[in-house]
Amino acid sequence: MRAPIVSAQGLTKRYGTDTVFSGVSLDVVAGEFVAIVGDSGVGKSTLLNGLAGLDTFDEGRVKLCGHELGTASDDQRALLRRQHVGFVFQAFHVLPHLDVAQNIALPLMLLGTPTAAIAPRVQAMLEAVGLSGLGGRLPQQLSGGQMQRVAIARALVHQPALLLADEPTGNLDPGTATRVMDLLLAQTHEQGAALVLVTHSQAAARRSDRVLQLTAGGFA
Predict the structure, then answer these.
(1) Which residues neighbour 145 within 8 Å (Cβ) at sequence distance 6 or greater?
(2) Do 58 and 21 touch, CB atoms closer than 8 A?
(3) In terms of CB atoms within 10 Å, which of 113, 171, 201, 209 comes out highest?
């Protein structure tokens, strides 16, 4: 059996005296697409942030590519995230003062990729997501669907082992949402990445290998 890209065991998250969820366990292997669904406020985004090392848990453990996140320092978690994780958000989170190509190049720059190697990688991703010729545009010159394509290209340009997507089609119309999901799945499949998607979209969830419903007591 393949070792999981990300493994979570017995996770509990509290805010003060309020328990958001408890007993959450999850293994995701390379090439697998897992959709996480659940009621609003049950902690889906919190769970996703924790899997990336952006948040911590009160109980349980998370291993990312064999590394324990709970015992890692902030700097170590940041490096693991840069090396192994891509993140796509509902609100895109593209930087408005950078053009499309610069936005996509950010993960490579943070990893210290040689300058000569960055441009070809960025160009390849622009072509892969259907944005050839738009590298010099600013985000405000793009449609919502195009901005989400930029976000997907940025998340995958450094070829991460794990892609986390938090409601990536939530701000898009149904037709654009379908096309963005097509692109997301095609690119993660091509790269062999594990994909964990938080979504309210039944259409998106149906395309996954597994659908897990998050509740206060773990996965139903």
Answers:
(1) 172, 176, 179, 180
(2) no
(3) 201
Q: Give domain status of residue 1, yes or no.
A: no
How far, CA to CA in Å, does 120 sit from each of 63, 101, 132, 158, 184? 32, 11, 12, 12, 21
Backbone Cα Rg of the chain: 17
Domain that holds residue 178: 6-219
- Give the separation between CA 1 and CA 18, rounded to whole angstroms: 37
Helices 174-191, 144-156: crossing angle, 10 deg rounding: 10
For 109-145, what is each residue's pLDDT tens digit? 999 999 999 999 999 999 999 999 999 999 999 999 9
Q: What is the pLDDT of residues 48-95, one digit of tens each?
A: 999 999 999 999 999 999 999 999 999 999 999 999 999 998 888 999
Question: What burial class does residue 29 get, using C-beta atoms within 10 Å of its C-beta: 0-12 exposed, 13-18 middle, 19+ buried?
Answer: middle
Q: How far apart are CA 140 and CA 121, in angstroms?
A: 23
Has residue 26 been placed in a domain? yes
What single-letter DSSP state applies at residue 42? S
Compute the distance between CA of residue 169 and CA of residue 212 in angstroms, rounded to an integer.
18
The maximal CA–CA distance of the chain, rounded, in angstroms, is 52
Q: Look up the pTM and report it.
A: 0.94
Q: Which residue has the tokens 């697998």?
A: 32
Backbone angles phi, psi at 197, to 5 degrees: -120, 125
User: For tokens 């964990």, what's the residue?
Assistant: 196
